[in-house]
Automatic annotation (TrEMBL):
Keywords: Monooxygenase, Oxidoreductase. Pfam families: ABM. It comes from Quisquiliibacterium transsilvanicum. Residues 2-99 form the ABM domain. Coiled coil: none annotated. It comes from the Bacteria. This is Quinol monooxygenase YgiN. One of its GO terms (molecular function) is monooxygenase activity.
Amino acid sequence: MIHVIAVITAKPGRRGEVLEAFRANIPAVRAEDGCIEYVPVVDAEGMGSWQARIGEDSFVVVEKWRDAAALAAHAKAPHMADYSAKTRELVATRTIHVMSAA
C-alpha cells in the first residue's frame, strides 16, 4: 500500500475555494481503481497547546492507494488535470509526501 500526505496551502483567504473544488473532485478520485482513502482534513479545534497547527490557509489530504501503479494512474487522470487547472491561481504551495509502511 502507498500512503500519501499532501499539504495544500492556498493563497491567503482562498482555502474555502480550493476545498470546494477539491470536494467536487472527490467522487471521481474515489472511483479510481486502487483508491482506498482520499480525504481532506484541517486543524481540529480545542486540542491544546501541544498541537502543531497546519494553519487557516492550509489543508492536508490523506490518501491510501493499493500500489504505486494506482497512484501513478491517479496523477495522470483527466479529472486531476481539471482540478489542477481550476485551482492553479488559488494555491500558493503544494507539498506531496509519498510513503510506504515502515
